[in-house]
Amino acid sequence: MATKNCSLASAKFLSTCLRDCQDALNPPPNSAQQPLQQSRVSFLSALDSLQITLLQHLSATIGTAGETIGNRALDHTIFEDQKLMHNHSLIHKSALILLFLAWLSPVTATDSDQATTTTIAFGSCADDEKPDHPIWDAIIETKPESMIFMGDNVYVDMEAALADGTVEGFRPDYERLANTPGFQRLREVATLHATWDDNEYGSQDGGAEYSLKDVSQRKFFEFWNVDPESERYKTPGVYGSAWVESEHGRIQIILTDTRYFRSPVVRAEPNDECPYVNILPSEDPELTMLGEAQWEWLSERLAEPADLHLLVSSIQVIPEEQCFERWYEMPLERKKLFAAIRNASARTIILTGDRHIGEISRLPTTDDEGMGYDLYDVTSSSLSASFGFGEGEPNRYREGDNVRVNNFGILKVDWTNRIATMELRDQTGTKLRTAQLALDD
To answer: 45, 201, 291, 411: least CB-packed within 10 angstroms?
Structure first.
């Protein structure tokens, strides 16, 4: 947290400013500043009222030391000047007001400020055929330590990949992303973490039935530089975890895989409410979103000591009403996930993609599945792919309206105050939506 110190140097600066103020308010005889003389009484009256408010604020904001600091600054500098002694009241009031304004003035972030804040960017749905998209520069300008790619990171030509049947069928789209200048710059300044969704997996809304899933997995690991000797590389699916650590705290990134093991979804014909896709909820207990091995792994990860868990899912977790893929298509699996989060070692924030819209959904503590704190699902989509969808789409958990422009997410953890701030920003870096979560009660 940035702080201001009222030093002797700053008090001398106040003295100079106040001397100029006094000269203006006490012009020499025969001066032409008659209008200012006439307003002097009303000015002093206003100072009296403002001084009372100021002292109350300083007391509430920085304790009774606030007034003491102001008085000491005056004692050590201003009242050394005998020419100011005759106007003690005016100077005292003006000094306190200037001190107050200095206290409120913006503070440029210092290295110390940045050292106590962790910044993580996240997003999904990157069109590899738009190499010059401005969103990459906007992400880089936030100076993230890490960037999480939440799926649909490239859009594989699914028919060509299926016809080829080898890793080469997946290569062209990954190469276009690799050659994107903004992506290259981001890769140089941030640690990248990734999971996949259906568009790089190779099967639209696909799951465990996809015949090339192991081929696709190899290409995914190759592109994202997953160590061939790691447990993640040797395990079916692309799920994995990573840590973002500093001397102030530990954030665990948990990358789930909602493709490799997922059971087939239940579909109905499109209708007026669901004109494009109509995926229905099914409470069949045999259906799985993650598969047995990944469920066991997830429970173990959430049990690990952390200050914050970031659970990354390529598809939305909290929203129910939308007609596309979501965890609510398997309500029993969603309930199981909420139970796992409820038993976690620390509070959790869910990060999701897929939808080509951005929104912040909040599961309140009063919900039947409540955590004892507000659980957030921050959906960021799309980075550079198509947008403009979702107007009027229902979501009873949504905070505000959804975002229908290209967007990315930012998570900032203020370790001094132990608060996580979630943001959705557009391609210029402008903040569109925000929410906060305290890491502790």
So the answer is: 45
